[in-house]
Amino acid sequence: MKVYLSILVLLIQFLPVFGQLDSANRSPYRVYRAYELPASLTVLGASFFGYRQLDRYASFDAGDIAQLDPTRINAFDRPVAYFDPARFEAAQQRSDRFLNLSIASPLLLMLSNRIRHKGLDVLTLYTTAHAVNNLLYFATSFSIRRARPLTYNPAIPVSEKIGNAKSNSFYSGHVSFSTTATFFGAKILTDFYRIRGWKRVAVFSGAAIPPILVGFNRMHAGKHFRTDVLTGFLVGAACGIGIPEIHRIRRKTGQLSLQPTFTFTGQRGIAFRYRF
User: Fold this and answer.
1) In which domain, by residue range, is 249 found?
2) How many domains does the chain have?
3) What is the spatial distance between Cα 1 and Cα 232, in angstroms, rounded to a whole number?
4) Both ends of the chain: CA-CA distance in Å?
5) Cα–Cα distance, 139 to 250 (Å, whole number)
6) DSSP string, 35-48
7) What is the pLDDT of residue 242?
8) N or C terminus: fewer CB in 10 A for the chain?
9) Distance between CA atoms of 189 and 69, rounded to whole angstroms?
10) What's the CA dihedral at 250, 256, 258, 262 to 10 degrees?
11) What's the half-sphere exposure (Cβ side, CA atoms, 13 Å) at 128?
């Protein structure tokens, strides 16, 4: 973790070498803070209750465990069901640390005077990216009930396989949230400083390291299969890159809009509109 932080600090210090500032000294994004920031914060605040509800919804009892058959797991994912339980606790702690590092890593962008000058816009984009990610995560996790790898593991007693949060394996929220954060930071960095070519590839390659470490440890904690981790990575990357990119396109065209939606039944969402 110390090595990764050092790399980010050095990268920001040497940004003039990597790219050029916008000559107009303007943000590359068009952000509507008046509604995007409070809407995204509302979604993130409500997510706290959503996680608790999801844990209860994803509960297993002894009857559910009895119906599980490891041989029915696809060949790509099956080895994860047999990982050593003795490593679970340490892997869980490592995954949490790497997740926390990832979530906090965009704060290093504030070391840049250019980005710090547009700090509120960046904060709005960051909360919006995570809000959209959370909505996608809940929509998927509540719809798809997949047993966690540990529930298949013959080395684990049934008493540890039952209870809350045992059937919300698909997809990995830890990996998705981590990837959203680090890819968001890479996207902001490369857009503000017009970093292109292999240098841009290098920035995003570095941004992929923390989510990969999160995913590796989530599997060795018995929480997720390989496909859960890969899906979480792709969804997180799409949110971390896609939300700033939508706002960048909107600044250039003025035709694309992103607005929160609310219904009388309490449902929340994000609406994308493109004016032809």
Assistant:
1) 2-274
2) 1
3) 21
4) 46
5) 26
6) HHHHHHHHHHHHHH
7) 97
8) C
9) 46
10) 160
11) 26
Q: Supply the DSSP string of 133-193, one letter for each residue.
A: HHHHHHHHHHH--B--GGGT-TTS-GGGTSBSSSSB-SS-HHHHHHHHHHHHHHHHHHHHT
Strands 268-274 and 256-262, bridge-based pairing: antiparallel
| Residue pointed to by tokens 């803070």 | 33
Residue given tokens 């993130």 in the structure block: 44
pLDDT in tens, the chain (276 residues): 444 444 444 444 444 444 444 444 578 999 998 999 999 999 999 999 999 999 999 999 999 999 999 999 999 999 999 999 999 999 999 999 999 999 999 999 999 999 999 999 999 999 999 999 999 999 999 999 999 999 999 999 999 999 999 999 999 999 999 999 999 999 999 999 999 999 999 999 999 999 999 999 999 999 999 999 999 999 999 999 999 999 999 877 755 555 555 554 555 555 555 554
- The amino acid present at 160, given as its one-letter code, is E
Closest alpha carbon to 176 in 149, 144, 140, 205: 140
Which amino acid belongs to residue 71? Answer: T
Of 173, 165, 191, 25, residue with least CA distance to 102 = 173
